[in-house]
Design a protein that fits this description.
The chain is α/β, with parallel strands linked by helices. Helices cover 27% and strands 23% of the residues. It is built from eleven helices and 22 strands. Strands 1, 12, 13, 16, 17, 18, 19, 20, 21 and 22 form a ten-stranded mixed sheet that branches.
Length: 397
């Protein structure tokens, strides 16, 4: 049985986006020293100067798109490393058959670390306590564990402070069972053009890299810092590896723009299940948030906040029916919403409803994730990550 509300995930579009990002990096990369990235983080040697490799981010269930199928499609497209939020997400990817290295971004101090060894995951070390826990676990397994070192250059969440490394890092770097494979940081304001902290974080990161070399670390250790927004804003943040997330899924982080030819990967559709007539002055849904100003026709759609759709779509969002835009009216409830189809004429149960995607002659009408996010005052990340587990994903290769 298939519910009426379905997310369609276009894996060919995903792979195309991955390759488009690679092409953009190759065409736009400034002259730079040869890449020092290891084989799984290195773009195959081209005839032009080396370019950053792409570490594909598939955390949060691949931004709501379904991590298993997305990860395998990215691996097939040529991704040589993936990144997820925690050990549990990494285990899901390994059980799905992913073979390339998988970086775990999240904090590990209180995690069950056995999964790192059983499933060959690469941890991030971002605190002294995590380093001690990982050293003890690696010694127990008589293993040499590769890790990425995270530096805090201004986000003030996880990471070793950029200005305190001489005190905090020697113990980590001297751990006999831990092997430094890369160093990275994360920008707080890459999607805020002109914000002073963005440039300051880059400068702090470069000073921190010099300080780490002063502690005896080779300058050949790969570096990464650029998420999707930083990738678009400043090529100086690309270093040896970039970490696109949202761009892979065909979404440009607002308010930025991009010339990369990207395709939306997810569409979200449902079906009309009932059509109701309203008399002038009558309301619809919880709280009487919509009142008809005249005779009106309302279509009921079986999708609600239990499917991850935001309450704020009521009175603010739109949908597509029969190739035309219609407003979402009344309250978005747990399992359904209502749309005003008065202007459409005849609407029937079974008619397709597009919440995200294209519809109409030659698909000329479109509602994309950025538009939906802007309509309700949120960010595209939240829209896609909240697509609920009871919405079946249909994958198109």
């Amino acid at each position: 049985m298939i519910r009426s509300t379905v997310a369609r995930v276009d894996l060919a579009a995903l792979q195309s986006n991955f390759r488009s990002i690679q092409a953009f990096l190759a065409q736009s990369a400034p002259e730079r020293a040869p890449s020092v990235a290891p084989s799984h983080l290195r773009t195959p040697a081209p005839s032009h100067p080396p370019v950053p490799s792409v570490l594909a981010v598939v955390k949060a269930n691949a931004y709501g798109h379904g991590s298993e199928r997305v990860a395998l499609a990215l691996e097939q497209a040529g991704a040589t490393m993936l990144a997820c939020a925690d050990i549990e997400e990494g285990i899901v990817l390994r059980r799905a058959g992913v073979r390339v290295p998988i970086l775990v971004f999240g904090a590990l101090s209180v995690s069950d670390l056995e999964g790192l060894f059983e499933y060959a995951l690469t941890p991030t070390i971002s605190t002294p306590s995590a380093a001690r826990a990982l050293q003890a676990a690696a010694a127990k397994h008589a293993a040499s564990l590769g890790y990425h070192l995270k530096l805090d250059t201004g986000m003030n969440r996880l990471g070793f402070r950029h200005d305190n490394l001489a005190r905090t890092l020697p113990e980590v770097l001297s751990s006999p069972n831990l092997r430094l494979e890369a160093i990275y940081t994360h920008f707080a304001t890459a999607d805020a053009p002109g914000h002073a902290l963005f440039a300051e974080q880059r400068e702090r990161f470069e000073r921190a890299l010099q300080a780490i070399r002063g502690l005896g670390v080779s300058g050949d250790v790969p570096r990464h810092a650029a998420n999707s927004a930083a990738l678009l804003c400043d090529a100086r943040t690309w270093y040896d590896v970039v970490r696109p997330g949202l761009l892979l899924y065909g979404i440009v982080p607002p308010p930025l723009a991009s010339t990369i030819p990207l395709q939306p990967v997810m569409s979200l559709t449902s079906r009309v299940v009932a059509v109701k007539g309203l008399r002038s002055g009558e309301s619809v849904g919880y709280g009487c948030r919509f009142n008809a100003h005249g005779p009106s026709t309302i279509a009921v759609v079986p999708a609600g906040y239990a499917d991850g759709l935001d309450l704020r779509l009521g009175q603010h969002g739109q949908a597509l029916i029969r190739g035309r835009r219609v407003p979402i009216v009344g309250a978005v409830s747990m399992d359904m919403m209502t749309v005003d189809v008065t202007e459409l004429g005849e609407v029937q149960p079974g008619d397709e409803v597009v919440l995200i995607g294209r519809q109409g002659p030659e698909s000329w009408q479109q509602i994309d994730v950025r538009e939906m996010a802007a309509a309700i005052g949120t960010i595209p990340y939240e829209i896609v990550c909240r697509v609920g587990s009871r919405i079946e994903r249909h994958y198109v290769d």
